[in-house]
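User: For a teaching handout, I'd like to show students what a predicted protein-ligand complex looks like in token form. I'll give you the sequence and the SMILES for S-adenosylmethionine. Please answer with just the structure.
Assistant: Understood, here is the input followed by the structure.
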Amino acid sequence: MQSIKDSKTYREISQIMNTDIFKKKIEYSFDKYADKYDSRTFLQKEIMSVLLNFLDQEISMTNKKKKNHLLDLGCGTGELSNILIKKLNFNKIHLLDLSSQMLNIAKKKINKDNVLFDRNDFDSFCQFDDYDMIVSNMALHWSANFIVFIERILNQMRKNTIFIFSIPDNKSFSFLKKVKLGELINKFPEKEIILKKNY
Ligand SMILES: C[S@@+](CC[C@H](N)C(=O)[O-])C[C@H]1O[C@@H](n2cnc3c(N)ncnc32)[C@H](O)[C@@H]1O
């Protein structure tokens, strides 16, 4: 007979397996379309420019001059970091993404010695205290558990670290709800819940 403990373990195992399959699907999709990504993603670029304008207004002159350590989560083809590198001072840059094909394009774009191209899952990353600036454009909603993940970043990052990101929320892309994209469409978080995490 199966005990409650056993069935819980079974649930946990099947959850891990589902998460693994979900990640593999994300990796496969971005690998497959990496070479078309830059020419076809107008929305992502538009949102990136809003994010950059916001950062420009919020960041102090001292921070603009300071030599910073940058982390770009779900960097994709490296577009955001490539723009930031030209605007601000960074002594080290860490580009992290699940898709090696997206990273390969970023490598061609950003040809600098102080850049780490890291094929990694941001959900298992845990050194957020190493950075002065953490950025992410249209990527963190792919997290296996967005709220837990955001909480981990906020808890681990240093007090003066700038953390800036964009994601769709549960009101974005209502047209997509009619398209059958299966599990690839994540449950986007509610803005109100994210704002409550603002420590
Ligand atoms: C819509 S693209 C955005 C790319 C880039 N930030 C931009 O603005 O163009 C989302 C990126 O997040 C990456 N990604 C999704 N889940 C991830 C995860 N768990 N860990 C690391 N990267 C992930 C994908 O591989 C993809 O490159």
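For the handout, you might add this sentence: The first strand starts at residue 68 and ends at 73.
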